[in-house]
Amino acid sequence: MRWLLIALLLPRVALAFPTGSQFDLDPLTQDGAGGIAFTGAPRWSGHTCAVCHTDTPSRIGLRLESDHPELFTDGWKPGMQYHLRVVLENEWAALQYQAAGDNCGFNAMPYTPCDENGFALEMDDPNGKPVGKLVRVTMGACVNTGTAPTDVDVRVLTDGTAVTHNGAHMGMTAWDLCWTAPAAGAGVITAYLAAVDGNGGNGTEAFPNDTTGDDVAAGAVPMPEAGAMAPPPQTGGCNAGGDAGIAVALAIALLAMKRRRLLAALLALATVASCAHVRPRQRETLAKRNMKFAPDPTEDELDLHMQESREGSAGGYGSAGGGCGCN
Fold first, then answer.
1. Are 62 and 160 in a shared domain?
2. Number of domains in the chain
3. Any domain includes 239
4. Which residue of 13, 62, 116, 228 is surrounded by the most CB atoms within 10 Å?
5. Any domain includes 318
6. Residue 58 sits in a domain of what CATH number?
7. Is the pTM value of this prediction over 0.90?
8. Are 108 and 237 in the same domain?
9. C-alpha 90: how far from its chain's center?
10. How does pLDDT run across 23-47, given as a tens digit for each residue?
């Protein structure tokens, strides 16, 4: 009850996750994600960055690249390490601040908004379990041993299940990482990824980043085990932000490493999938207790965090008329 009173008395500000460490923080006490990367993976009910970054225009796209193009055509090979790159395409939000690089925000006088973008990626087996090993990249090489510098642009979650932006540098539209495939027999592995094109908040020191006015893209890339079966069709997921019928474009191409020319062009595009708005008269059903997102207390905490971020309010979660029905 004390927490509820504090939440009602103090103004709440919905913030984005400018640093990767926030994905590991507690969602209630530290405004974090509780170890969830919001990649759109089914193990977390398909939640993407659009959970908090709402009403996005969906003008951006995503591209997943690899130094081995056969990863997307022939499939993954057991135990092989792949150098991957996530690319944010068609950036538009805060693009005018990109040239400033890290010379922005509180590092500049006078204060100048930053071009802050981010991403999240995980690799799951058919049962929705993260598989393989994710590591960071520094100086063009996978960091398999030792400790990477603190200014590396990606960060692996504490439990190793996903990788996100680190927030060390501004104006980023591409992030490099390495993934080691699991042992044989894992079946079709799907790369779930999402990205945010941040708009720099409202341009003032008081709100250097928020969840309003940003853009979001998300998609899924299935990859079969090499020699096990034919490659599955590439499909995309539903973007939780914006109006019904918004497309989520996800392109896959070959990663150009060490300045080599690209050897392969576009391999696949995620297709359009639509979302449906709930009519006011239908929300009574969604507000019932048995329509809660999940019986898991941890999942409930996450859902409460989402509700607070989207509405700028707190309290009432799980009570009559609450839950999905009031969104």
1. yes
2. 2
3. yes
4. 116
5. yes
6. 2.60.40.1930
7. no
8. yes
9. 17
10. 999 988 888 889 999 999 999 899 9
